[in-house]
Amino acid sequence: MMRLDGFGLFVEDMAKMIRFYRDVLGFEIKEDENTENVYLLKDGTLFMLYGRRNFEKMTSRKYEYIKGLNGHSEIALYVDTFDEVDAEYAKAVGKGAVSVLEPTTEPWGQRTCYIADPEGNLIEIGSFNRPFEH
User: Fold this and answer.
1) Is 95 contained in some domain?
2) Model pTM score
3) Are residues 41 and 19 in the same domain?
4) 31: domain range?
5) pLDDT per residue over 43-102, tens digit each?
6) Beta bridge partners of 8
7) Engineering a disulfide at 79: which of 27, 58, 84, 103 sits with its beta carbon 3.0 to 4.6 angstroms away?
8) CA 81 to CA 61: how far, in whole Å?
């Protein structure tokens, strides 16, 4: 049986991406900024940053990468209250995250917003105004 272990992003500028996820979003990244790969267990989920060049070398292939906002995927972060959505959005944008969608309460009862990391990956911060549960 296969289980979801985690997810990764293929990164062009590792130092910049480490600074973003560590300093802007507060991920506890221990690796040095000039590392080749980051493996971080966050809230029971493996989060990885892979150097693009290393991955291309390992697989003996070239890949295409989107420049600008990447509409193919998102990372979803959950907070317990609507107020925290607004606060975390403001904090992230204040520290340099790119705003994509300001906090909005959607018809399905979720307050959500979107920011982007330095390489254009979309990050959602959302809440149903109750504690996190799977």
Assistant:
1) yes
2) 0.92
3) yes
4) 6-59
5) 889 999 999 999 999 999 999 998 899 999 999 999 999 999 999 999 999 999 999 999
6) 48
7) 84
8) 44
